[in-house]
Amino acid sequence: MPARPDYIDDLDEPETLVDLLDRVLDIGVSISGDLRISVANVELLYVGLRLVLGDSERLLGGPREAET
Fold first, then answer.
1. What residues form DSSP beta bridges with 45?
2. CB 44 within 8 A of CB 55
3. Dihedral angle over CA of 53, 54, 59, 63, nearest 10
4. Is 17 helix (H, G, I), strand (E, B) or coil?
5. pLDDT by residue (tens digit) across 30-48?
6. What is the pTM of this model?
7. Which residues of the chain have pLDDT under 50?
8. What are the helix and strand counts (H, E) for the chain?
9. 13: helix, coil or strand?
10. What is each CA distance from 4 to 10, 14, 17, in whole angstroms?
11. CA 33, CA 38: separation in Å to the nearest integer?
């Protein structure tokens, strides 16, 4: 029988919230969504969500140089 890959062994152990948050911030997540409530083609409520979570250095393209 072939050996199991390492990532499958990692799935057997439950992750804590801190581990999950660390992984999400390391990789980065983008969430977007829209909610519209209308009656008879009259828009009563619009909610827009744009959310980006991640490491600021990674999102901005690395550490910035100090201005002189």
1. 37
2. no
3. 140
4. helix
5. 889 999 999 998 999 999 9
6. 0.44
7. none
8. 3, 2
9. coil
10. 11, 18, 26
11. 17
